Amino acid sequence: MKAFTQLNGLACPIDRANIDTDAIIPKQFLKSIKRSGFGPYLFDEWRYQDHGEPGMDCTHRPLNADFVLNQPRYQGAQIMLARENFGCGSSREHAPWAIEDYGFRVIIAPSYADIFFNNCYKNGMLPIVASHEVVDKLFKACLATEGYRLNVDLPSQTVTLPCGETFTFDIHPTSKHNLLNGLDEIGLTLLHADKIKAFEAKHKVAQPWLFA
Amino acid sequence: MAGKTLYDKLWDSHVVHEDADGTCLIYIDRHLVHEVTSPQAFEGLRLAGRKPWRPDTLVANPDHNTPTKNWEKGIEDPISRLQVETLDSNIKETGALVYFPFKHANQGIIHVIGPENGTTLPGMTVVCGDSHTSTHGAFGALAHGIGTSEVEHVMATQTLIAKKSKRLLVLVNGQLGVGVTAKDVALAVIGKIGTAGGNGFAIEFAGEVISALSMEGRMTICNMAIEAGARAGIIAPDEKTAAYLKGRQYAPKAADWDKAVAYWNTLVTDADAVFDSIVELKGAEIAPQVTWGTSPEQVLPINGRVPDPAQEHDATKRTSIENALKYMGLTANTPIEDIKLDKIFIGSCTNSRIEDLRAAAVVAKGKKVASSIQLAMVVPGSGQVKRMAEAEGLDKIFIEAGFEWREPGCSMCLAMNADRLSPGERCASTSNRNFEGRQGQGGRTHLVSPAMAVAAAIAGHFVDVRSV
């Protein structure tokens, strides 16, 4: 997993509540057996005027000029501002893969769907939960100011606004540690292999039918 | 000390290791696998030189990409075919307890075949790279969807890194009216608490209405827990659970059976257990439900009218309503019963089991699909469901009424195969998500029960199935 420590990046506001993972990456792109290459299809149905299919070269597709990702001022954005319940619906990890492949490393929203939230960490992305007030303020400032950049610092758990103002965010200590160090979770879990085997032996005695 | 909820019992009995900050390693008993969310996990294992910890916990089957007709032609889309063939070769390499390849007599939707073969049991932890894994909670199992990285983690270690959820009790007491089904209860719950209402929670469903439901109905309710934001929905096992499982191929046998049932009987919430939150609904007040918007929480009783954004004071909600009306091509204040349909879809892991098809057939019997309906299709959840329905003559009822009778699969619930809506088409669907583009780009989905879908097919527009 890619490590994350600190990022000073351009923010992009996706102003809509309850964005589902079908919108983030439509189903036809889930036919890929790879983990990469989803970025060009991020928000495909909102981003382009035509119908996207896997493998399509997106460089000449007709863009929906109104969609925020297509506006020149947000090109190169690495921090996504989003609304509540971001990433609801399907568990597809293709959604964080697409967001990451596009270039985002941080999302700031009032709340996330549980599975999506977990999936972000597995891909070296930082989903920050901020209050509605803070998120509202960021949306307003971002819309009002071209080139609006935020500084995200994971060790100190802070986001610093261009005006110098700072807010802190919570993160689970294990998630923070793994993200800071870009750790391979499977490798870490296998350090507990003896414990897993001991549990398994006990479990097998109690419920032998689970081991038929 | 307060007693334990069912969720607490399931959780506590699977903790392998707990970190100081409460992060746990949870042992996984059953891992369901389909073709869409697994190839990258198998690839990850191979690249790291790792082997699955317990291949005998895998139950696998392609379902999302498989066609529902012309099986003799195979899978025509080469990208879909490659994904299904990749699952074939991955399972060939690792082994599995159960594998039903494409066209196998028992192939079907993974959340239908798990229970019907007795591979989902009370007291288990069940995961799958699919959010509708919550379905299996109907058996008193702790079951939820995971991402592909977690699929790889579970394969490699037989555990999942997880943090305990909060506990929400959804109580549905009283009795449902005639023509009101588990689907209507699920939609009514989502309408009440919202699609984010269950975020961070595991939901236990209980009450007289839940107890009275069949296992199929309970699966429908737990299936849609994720649409309320809760990864897991659970219902305590009872005599119906045991009766459903008894004799199924992978259910415990002989002495193990009695021992298992004795254990399953302990899987109930203690009388003095405490929930973090409780929501109550009265069964008698639930009418047949129809979604009008682009989120399952945008739902109304059949006698309702499409909402007017001008009446909404919350700016975010008002924008959501405006966006939904625009996408759905609906005008504020239109009676739900005036909404005309183009297509009808009966199927999906929510509503494709035998009981769903029976309920649909009761309404379809001797009737004809309206001429204005371009396509009405019934997609059974599995080969077993299909054969059972055919043995009961349900296929003939549907075909005579003008429905197409298809082969099993996920089909137009998410439209990864050829079954999909065209832009602007409006569909009454027994599936679980009415998101923009879910059933095809520009397609407009209204979620309903199987009986309501058939009633709409016959009338050409929504009608109250209680009056049919």
How does this structure look, described?
The complex is a heterodimer of chains A (212) and B (468). Helix content of chain A is 32%, strand content 14%. Chain A is of the alpha/beta class and 212 residues long. A seven-stranded mixed sheet of chain A has the order 4-3-2-1-5-6-7. The model of chain A has no long low-confidence stretch (mean pLDDT 97). In chain B, the strands form five sheets. Chain B has a five-stranded parallel sheet with strand order 5-4-3-6-7, with helices on both faces. In chain B, strand 13 and strand 14 form a beta hairpin. Chains A and B meet through helix 4, helix 7 and helix 8 of A and helix 2, helix 3, helix 5, helix 10 and helix 11 of B.
Structural class of chain B: alpha/beta
The largest pleated sheet of chain B is described as: 5 strands, parallel
- Main-sheet strand order of chain A equals 4-3-2-1-5-6-7
User: In percent terms, what proportion of residues of chain B is strand?
Assistant: 15-25%
**What global shape of chain B is seen?**
globular
Question: Tally the helices of chain B: what do you get?
Answer: 15
Record the SSE blueprint.
The complex is a heterodimer of chains A (212) and B (468).
Chain A: E1 6-13, H1 21-24, H2 44-47, E2 79-81, H3 94-102, E3 106-109, H4 114-121, E4 126-129, H5 132-144, E5 149-153, E6 158-160, E7 166-168, H6 173-181, H7 185-190, H8 193-206
Parallel strand pairs in A: 1-2, 2-3, 3-4
Antiparallel strand pairs in A: 1-5, 5-6, 6-7
Chain B: H1 6-12, E1 15-18, E2 24-27, E3 30-33, H2 39-48, E4 58-60, H3 78-94, E5 98-99, H4 110-116, E6 125-128, E7 142-145, H5 148-157, E8 159-162, E9 166-173, H6 182-193, E10 201-206, H7 208-212, H8 215-223, E11 232-234, H9 239-245, H10 254-264, E12 277-282, E13 289-291, E14 299-301, H11 315-328, E15 343-346, H12 354-364, E16 375-378, H13 383-391, H14 394-401, E17 404-405, E18 426-429, E19 444-447, H15 450-459
Parallel strand pairs in B: 3-4, 3-6, 4-5, 6-7, 9-10, 9-12, 10-11, 15-16, 15-18, 16-17, 18-19
Antiparallel strand pairs in B: 1-2, 2-8, 13-14
